[in-house]
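Problem statement: downstream parser choked on a complex file, so we are re-checking the raw output for the calcium ion run. The parser issue turned out to be on our end (a line-ending mismatch), but while we're here, posting the original submission so the record is complete.
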Amino acid sequence: MTRHSRDLRSQATQAADTRDTTRVEGSDKRRVLVIEDEPDMVRGLRDAMTFEGFDVLSANSGREGVDKQRETPAHLVILDLMLPDINGFKVCEEIRQFDQHVPVLMLTARSQEADKIRGFEVGADDYVTKPFSIGELLARINAMFRRLDLAATPAAQLRIGECEIDFKKQTVTRNQRAEVLSFYEVELLRLLCERVGEPVSRDEILEKIWGLEAAPTNRTVDNFIVKLRRKLERDPKNPRHILTVYGFGYKLVSD
Ligand code: CA
């Protein structure tokens, strides 16, 4: 391992170690916006999340949801795919035009892989298929907020090849051009940085970042690797930094 690799690893580890002492201070409640038209679902989500201490806003159409997030930005958005006016994909795209960072959790009755991939493409961070248990949903929401706290730490800036990564700003800069990293892109990159030079299995990534059980059809990790490579690699088809370990997972090489 080179000196640079060691530095990268120790910085990433330090950032991770500050996890418990850097929770966001302040008395403001965390605000969650629920964009969903089914009244029973909205009521159920509102009750459960209010009980957990969140401040819950709701919108019963896509258009109202986009407007609310623009006017009173929530810290997290729960977005149903099926809405009466514009669908959840479109809502997510519109929110991403003015808010790159808010975590978006999509709800859908469909379970097709194509929908999930499309959701990630338009900027959703996570996906829950109806019917889901409220316990599962709350666990996902709490995990997203824990990661937000971590992202809010004065994180190190890391260099990978010709890229400068800023975990706080959630950007990757190459040739003086900054690109924003999505919520899960940051988390995935952080995990690979913590283990620089070591293969990390798909199952471990899936479990640590998404809290999901591994499934043979799950392409979540691979899809996010493709997106990271587009931002980090000079030639994404011939990656030099985010390497595939065949039949196992991925490995980050920093220089
Ligand atoms: Ca709906």
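For whoever reads this later: The first strand starts at residue 31 and ends at 35.
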